[in-house]
């Protein structure tokens, strides 16, 4: 692609512009106001039209050159002083010409009826008018040449997909569940039997709630030794805690790994509130394997209809100076129907951090439900990993009782991994305002035009709907306010979109206006010099 006017200023980035109101508000800075006041004050001291113009242009150029020099010597900001000085001089000449043009017009229109004091008032008003018009013209030209237009975008991303996504923030709707208001790493209608969250710190806080009627839930809690991510404990001993008729469970802190399972598949949503890494790949069941990053404002939502098993574990070590590793006890706190329970997992002395973990059930010396007065149960482990396993088993009162429950994980932190069962075409991931791909993209349509050739490393900012296509590819549909492929901008500016006829017409019109204004100034000066050769040196008169 040939270089454009846009590329001369923003060769490898996207320009952003404020609204018209913000433009004028931001333009009234202290420096701009100070230079404007100084320019007006110097110009109005003169008593001739050309004196006003020369005073304004000279003061303008000199003041901005001094400001650029101060910035150069007093800050780390890179300033091309020579280029700035040349630009300031050119700007001073332009200000002088425009100022003279306005002043001459005002004087000609009011020569027969107004006095010199009135002239100065009008000239002072002209300063404001010139500043306003130049600022407005500058914004219009920047918009025409440098503001990319919204680009209607359609594209397909073949699986596996690896990239970054940011949720489109929408106003909450009281009539809809909270998870429908944001982008989800898991598409609508997705079902799974296991999801895992892992983090080097806190993986998240868990809240389980029985929602079905006519059913009671039995809670069993087992202590675990050597269990971390992806491990299945063998439970052969009685649980460390058993409770009947449980309606709520929450796990508050201490977890670096969370696994949620069920014999039957459950509905799953993984809600993204900020920008997140997302990986989507097909699996052997006809579904999708999801791997995404999680941040504190994200959350996981689950709706189950059968037994729910929750494994939480912690790494029982801490890192010291220069990477030194030492054992570190960890407190796991949870609540059952509002009743707080806690356990402190502590590795035994002599544990070797290099020993391979082996997940097994641990029989503590005391039952968790016998702890009292807020004192936690002390559980010793033979490895540097330990945790708790919660089994929530519904016990319906009748064949018609509901066994449904809901579970959420909030303040998530780390990575979420889920294996989804068979997915249907059209399953919606939700709305996103940023998508960045690291692999190939096909069927890309921008402004209704199909792009040919290989497309990769594409990023888009705007408003998009992301869903699963019939070909098991991620489909993206929407409008992009910023769109680039491998660092090359794809959405065009108004100038680039215009036809050659429009461009030539605009250039001829602009050149004609400048030429007409210059001719007027030249004719005015030439006539005055002819009538009075020393006119330029006059200190009074117009």
From TrEMBL:
Keywords: Membrane, Transmembrane, Transmembrane helix. It comes from Brevundimonas albigilva. This is Uncharacterized protein. The chain crosses the membrane at residues 23-44, 51-73, 85-109, 121-146, 502-521. It comes from the Bacteria.
């Amino acid at each position: 692609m040939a270089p454009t006017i846009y590329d001369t200023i923003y060769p490898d980035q996207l320009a952003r512009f404020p609204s018209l109101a913000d433009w004028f508000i931001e333009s009234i800075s202290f420096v701009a106001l100070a230079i404007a006041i100084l320019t007006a004050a110097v110009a109005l001291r003169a008593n001739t039209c050309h004196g006003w113009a020369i005073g304004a242009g000279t003061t303008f150029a000199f003041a901005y050159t001094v400001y650029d020099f101060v910035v150069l010597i007093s800050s780390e900001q890179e300033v091309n002083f020579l280029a700035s000085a040349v630009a300031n001089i050119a700007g001073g000449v332009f200000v002088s010409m425009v100022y003279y043009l306005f002043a001459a017009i005002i004087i000609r229109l009011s020569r027969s009826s107004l006095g010199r004091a009135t002239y100065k008032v009008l000239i002072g008003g002209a300063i404001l008018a010139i500043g306003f018009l130049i600022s407005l013209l500058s914004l219009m030209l920047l918009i025409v040449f440098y503001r990319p237009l919204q680009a209607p975008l359609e594209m397909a991303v073949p699986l596996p997909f690896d990239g970054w996504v940011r949720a489109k923030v929408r106003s909450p709707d009281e009539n809809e569940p909270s998870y429908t208001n944001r982008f989800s790493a898991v598409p609508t209608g997705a079902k799974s039997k296991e999801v895992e969250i892992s983090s080097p710190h806190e993986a998240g806080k868990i809240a389980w709630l029985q929602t079905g009627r006519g059913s009671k839930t039995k809670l069993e809690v087992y202590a675990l030794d050597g269990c971390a991510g992806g491990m299945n404990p063998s439970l052969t001993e009685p649980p460390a805690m058993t409770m009947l008729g449980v309606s709520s469970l929450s796990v508050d802190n201490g977890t670096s790994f969370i696994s949620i399972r069920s014999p039957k598949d459950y509905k799953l949503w993984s809600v993204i509130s900020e920008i997140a890494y997302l990986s989507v790949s097909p699996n052997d069941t006809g579904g999708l394997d999801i791997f995404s990053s999680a941040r504190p404002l994200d959350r996981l939502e689950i709706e189950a209809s059968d037994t729910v098993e929750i494994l939480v574990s912690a790494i029982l070590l801490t890192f010291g100076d220069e990477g030194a590793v030492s054992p570190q006890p960890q407190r796991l706190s949870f609540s059952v129907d509002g009743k707080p329970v806690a356990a402190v997992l502590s590795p035994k002395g002599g544990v070797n951090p290099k020993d391979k973990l082996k997940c097994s059930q641990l029989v503590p010396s005391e039952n968790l439900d016998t702890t009292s007065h807020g004192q936690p149960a002390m559980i010793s482990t033979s490895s540097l990993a330990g945790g708790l396993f919660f089994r929530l088993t519904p016990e319906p009162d009748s064949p018609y009782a509901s066994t449904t429950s809901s579970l959420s994980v909030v303040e998530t932190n780390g990575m979420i991994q889920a294996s989804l069962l068979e997915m249907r075409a059209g399953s919606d991931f939700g709305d996103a305002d940023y998508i960045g791909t690291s692999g190939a993209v096909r069927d890309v349509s921008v402004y209704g035009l199909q792009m040919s050739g290989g497309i990769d490393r594409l990023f888009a900012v705007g408003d998009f709907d992301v869903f699963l296509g019939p070909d098991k590819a991620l489909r993206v549909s929407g409008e992009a306010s910023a769109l680039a492929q491998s660092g090359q901008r794809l959405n065009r500016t108004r100038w680039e979109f215009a036809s050659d006829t429009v461009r030539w017409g605009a250039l001829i019109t602009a050149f004609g206006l400048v030429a007409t204004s210059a001719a007027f100034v030249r004719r005015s000066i030439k006539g005055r010099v002819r009538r009075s050769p020393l006119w330029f040196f006059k200190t009074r008169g117009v």
